[in-house]
Design brief:
The chain is mainly beta and 209 residues long. The chain has one helix and 13 strands. It folds into two domains: 42 residues, no CATH class; 145 residues.
Length: 209
């Protein structure tokens, strides 16, 4: 709708024609092409849904959790150290995923030690089993949704000085994403606190397809 030229107003009764031509039509011209969402919530982000519409996608929270409360193993066997429950339905679109970083500290002794990063029932990053002595292990993984109950995951670990004894793990978890999924750092050793989880960080990745 084109913009109409301003009217020179005089001390007369304003008619419907005046209002329509000089107020309503110009308001429509000003807002032509404006897009709006039917509803939104704090923290939402939007993307183009078509050439003429935008859509709410979902709340965007870069870091879902940053846990720095240390938790050590208890005696022999595999223990769950730090963990986080990924909310049900959070990965609602194929191509969306999460990035996970964990750091564990191995005690200063000659006991054999090992750490893992789990996505539900699947070990997505596997630390090298060895007699680690007073060193750290960094575990990283990316999990991407491929379907309602299928994912792909790539994990890596590095222990010791620099990049000594790295490992890489490719896996295909089969968690039902409509349910909450437990992300966990696990450790195995001999004595209490041989393996201490120092950090668990989970970051949401938005890569819609």
């Amino acid at each position: 709708m084109p913009w109409t030229a301003p009217k020179t107003w005089t001390a007369v009764v304003v008619t419907v024609s005046d209002l329509n031509t000089h107020v309503r039509d110009n308001e429509l011209a000003l807002h032509e092409g404006a897009l709006a969402l039917a509803s939104q919530a704090n923290g939402d982000w939007v993307q183009a849904a078509s050439a003429s519409a935008i859509a709410r996608v979902q709340p965007y929270t870069p870091h879902l959790v940053i846990n720095t409360t240390p938790v050590g193993n208890v005696g022999a066997g595999v223990d769950t150290l730090q963990s986080y429950a990924l909310a049900a339905g959070l990965l609602g679109t194929a191509g969306w995923g999460i990035e996970i970083t964990a750091v564990v500290k191995y005690a200063a002794n000659a006991n054999t030690k090992q750490a893992w990063l789990y996505f539900g029932a699947t070990a997505i990053a596997v630390g090298v089993q060895a007699a680690w002595n007073n060193v750290a292990c960094v575990l990283r993984a990316t999990v991407i949704r491929t379907g309602a109950a299928t994912q792909v995951a790539l994990g890596s670990t590095s222990s010791g000085t620099g990049s000594a004894n790295p490992s890489a793990t490719f896996s295909e978890p089969a968690e039902t994403l409509a349910n909450a999924i437990t992300i966990a750092v696990k450790g195995e050793a001999t004595d209490n606190d041989d393996v201490i989880s120092k950090l668990l960080m989970v970051r949401l990745v938005h890569t819609p397809t």
